[in-house]
Amino acid sequence: MSASKSKTADAKPKRPSQRAAAKLAAKAAVKPAAAPAAGAPAEQPQPAAAAGPAPKPTRGRGKQPVDLGDALVHAFETNERINQYLLEQLAPEIWDLEAPVGKGRVIRGVFAHIHNVRRLWLARRADEANAPAKLERDSATIEETRTALSASCAAVTTLLREALAGGGHMAEFKPDVAGFVGYAIAHEAHHRGQICILARLLGKPLPQAQGYELWNWRKRAEEARPEEP
User: Fold this and answer.
1) How many CB atoms lie within 10 A of CB 166?
2) What is d(CA 208, CA 130) in angstroms, rounded to the nearest whole number?
3) What values do phi and psi take at 46, rounded to 5?
4) What angle in degrees, to the nearest 10, is found between the helix axes of 68-89 and 217-224?
5) Contact by Cβ (8 Å): 86, 211
6) Helix or strand or coil: residue 109?
7) Are 85 and 188 spatial neighbours (Cβ–Cβ below 8 Å)?
8) How far apart are CA 165 and CA 41, in angstroms?
9) pLDDT tens for each residue of 181-190
10) pTM of the predicted model as reported, rounded to 2 decimal places
11) Separation CA 179–CA 185 (nearest Å)
12) What distance in Å separates the CA atoms of residue 141 and residue 79, rounded to the nearest whole number?
């Protein structure tokens, strides 16, 4: 055998290029699976994985959904009940006394301010004649203040329900009725804090138990709507 033939016989076969290997792999991937032989048992489907434990019921399950609009109104009514509770707990003898420090604030004047700010918002919505009467910060009595606050609370809740019926928008307050309720409660809570400080400065602080009761939202909410279960 000649040398040239010997070299050809001994030469190793060439490996396919990477591109050719990729084409072969693609053809194998799309090749349909072979049909089972005649008489062979059909492949049985695999059973599904066992389901995990059932989720625990969420808290409050079985209760009726909360009417968020009515909840907003109830929140403002509860806030008013806290105002009335504070009036009930204050010592009457400090009602019209000036604080010994600061600008000489008077508890009577702070309560009158709460009512008159409500009246301001109501007057923006309705004509002046239909808004509750203004409280005189220099002469209002405790009973007059209780009555005025109850009247302005009732008028504000009517305003809230009208806004909710109109989609939750308030022309006089942005962005919406929920924002207004948050603003109103924060404003009045701020002034309740001032009143408690004034009572302490005047030597008649609220007893600790009554001070805690100002924050008993659940109880005050029940008192705001005693007709509800």
Assistant:
1) 11
2) 40
3) -75, 140
4) 100
5) no
6) helix
7) no
8) 68
9) 999 999 999 9
10) 0.72
11) 10
12) 21
Show the tokens assigned to 106. Answer: 């008077």
Place of tokens 């403002």: 76
Phi/psi for 170 (5° steps) reads -130, 120
177: helix, coil or strand? helix
Q: pLDDT (tens digit, 9 = 90+) per residue, 4-37?
A: 444 444 555 555 566 666 666 666 555 555 555 5
Alpha helices by DSSP H, 16-141: 18-30, 68-89, 107-125
Domains, the chain:
68-224 (1.20.120.450)
172-176 LR contacts (CB < 8 Å, sep 24+): 172/121, 172/124, 172/125, 173/121
